[in-house]
Amino acid sequence: MKYMTAAEKTTLAQFLDLAGAYCKGGFRSRQQDYQFTDDVQPDSTSAASGNAATDSLECIAGDIKTCEACELCTTRKNAVPGEGAHQPLVMVIGEGPGADEDATGRPFVGKAGQLLDKMLAAIGLSRENNCFIANVIKCRPPGNRDPQPAETAACAAFLKRQIAILEPRFILSAGRVSVQTLLSTGEPIGKLRGKFIDFPAADRVIPLIATYHPSALLRNEDLKRPAWEDLKLLRTAITEADLGDRLLQ
Ligand code: URA
User: Fold this and answer.
1) H helical segments located in 66-107
2) pLDDT over 50 (residue 45)
3) CB of 55 within 8 A of CB of 165?
4) pTM (two decimals)
5) How distant, in Å, are the alpha carbons of 8, 34, 168 from that of 138?
6) Is 101 in the pocket of ligand 1 (CB under 6 A)?
7) Which atom of ligand 1 is nearest to the CA of 100?
8) Separation between Cα atoms, residue 180 and residue 185, nearest integer Å
9) How many A from CA of 99 to the centre of ligand 1?
10) How far apart are the CA of 138 and the centre of ligand 1, in A?
11) Is the sign of the CA dihedral 179, 192, 120, 130 positive or negative?
C-alpha cells in the first residue's frame, strides 16, 4: 500500500498490538490511543502530469484549454492542443500557435500551415489520415516571439502525455524552437536536420527527424531544397520500416 489514511494506520496499529500481545502469550497492555494523520498524496491528476492509467487525448486537450501554468494564458484567445489521426504514423511537432491558430484553436491553419499540409501531402501524409499535428507550446506567445524557457517548461508535460497516448511511429520536428526544445539542446537546426535522431519517449525510442519550419521556407526559398531532402528521408524510413502501406497514394 503506497499511501495510507489515518483510519487505515489505526487499524494496522491495532492489529499489530493484537499480534504482539498474542506472541507475548496473550498479555495485552492498555489500548493505545493513536493520533495518525492521512499521508499527503502527490497531485497525480494535476494538469501537467495527468494520470497515466486513465489519460486520453480528450483529457489532455481539456487540461490544456484550462491551463494557467504560465503567463500565456492571460493573452491567449484559444489554447491549441493539436489535432489529427490517433496512433499516427507521424507526429508533426511545431513551435507554437500563431495568430490564426490562436483565433481558431487549431494547429497550423495559417499560411505556414497550408504549406505544411502541402509538404506532408507530397510524401503521402495528412492530418486527416496518418499524422497528428501539435506544438511544443500550446498557447500563442504575444507577437509570435520565441517561447521563454519557463513557458516551454510549463507546457512540456502536455506534449509528453500526448506522445505517450498517441505512440507515433515517427516524429517530424518543424523548426528550430521545436527541435531544440524536444532534444534540450542549443545546437543550430542546420546541424540537427537531415538525419534521424532517437527521441526517448516514456517506454520506447521514437525516430525523430527535424526540418526547417514552413514559415522559414516562406521567407527563404533556399531552404526548400534541404526541407524536401528531409521529407524524402522520412518517406524512405517509413517504407523501410514496412509502413509504406499507411502512406496515401
Ligand atoms: N507555427 C507553428 O509552429 N505552429 C502552428 O500551429 C502554427 C504556426
Assistant:
1) 99-104
2) no
3) yes
4) 0.82
5) 42, 49, 19
6) yes
7) 7
8) 5
9) 9
10) 10
11) negative
